[in-house]
Amino acid sequence: MMREEDKRTEASVSGLTAGKCVAEEMLSASAEQTRAWAAQLGHALEPGDVLALWGELGAGKTTFCQGLAQGLEIASWRRVVSPTFTLINEYTGRLPFYHFDFYRLEHPGELEELGFRDYFWGNGVCAVEWAERWPELLPERTQVITIEVVGDETRRLKRWSPCGRLNGEGAGD
Ligand SMILES: Nc1ncnc2c1ncn2[C@@H]1O[C@H](COP(=O)(O)OP(=O)(O)O)[C@@H](O)[C@H]1O
Ligand SMILES: [Mg+2]
Questions:
Q1: What's the rounded Cα separation, in Å, for the pair 141 and 73?
Q2: What is the pLDDT of residues 49-105, one digit of tens each?
Q3: Is 159 exposed, middle or buried (0-12, 13-18, 19+ CB in 10 A)?
Q4: d(CA 167, CA 64)
Q5: Per-residue confidence (pLDDT) for residue 173, from 0 to 100
Q6: What does pTM read for this prediction?
Q7: Is the CB of 84 under 6 A from ligand 1?
Q8: Contact 72, 163 (CB under 8 A)
Q9: Which residue, judged by its Cα, is nearest atom 25 of ligand 1?
């Protein structure tokens, strides 16, 4: 039996998680734990990997991106903030890291102007906050991180990968 809570989550992320399966799940008790989990993932990321972050305001999407930046060996990971007004922030580490936020994106045309395909189909790593606003812009290989607020500092994190693929394999679309 599926919990009511899980059903709600499934419905609200359906555009993002369609065709994706939960590859990993953890219960985080603090921002530090979320960063550490994300850093582990960030350490294993490869050129062309795209991650979509899903969760309400204050869930921890940006905190997760700081962990990714740690794992990508970005020295200034503490300065990773939501690119709310710029749409994209770029960092250089072990790989280029492109941090997007679709929150204020009114029309995909704005992304076209940025040449977003060069990022999503490029040699860096992309993380996208509020990607559920325009899920159709993301490559099929996109992995999704859902962050559910369970308590003050407790979060349920899930990593969703395309079903039927081994973790981290088959990066090309
Ligand atoms: N377990 C946790 N994981 C992530 N963030 C947490 C956790 N517990 C508390 N927090 C706090 O919640 C806030 C999350 O903010 P932020 O990462 O900017 O969220 P979002 O980008 O989803 O709006 C931060 O202040 C962070 O310290
Ligand atoms: Mg944010």
A1: 23
A2: 999 999 999 999 999 999 999 999 999 999 988 877 788 999 999 999 999 999 888
A3: buried
A4: 19
A5: 53
A6: 0.90
A7: no
A8: no
A9: 58
Distance separating alpha carbons of residues 56 and 162, to the nearest angstrom: 23
153: Cβ below 6 Å to ligand 1? yes
Please identify, by atom number, the ligand 1 atom nearest to the C-alpha of residue 55: 22
Token pair 């045309």 is found at 109
pLDDT of residue 106: 86
Phi and psi for 12 in degrees, rounded to 5? -75, -20
Ligand 1: atom nearest CA of 59 is: 22
Neighbours of 105 (CB within 10 A): 17
For 5, the token pair is 């809570």
In the chain, what are the domains? 26-162 (3.40.50.300)
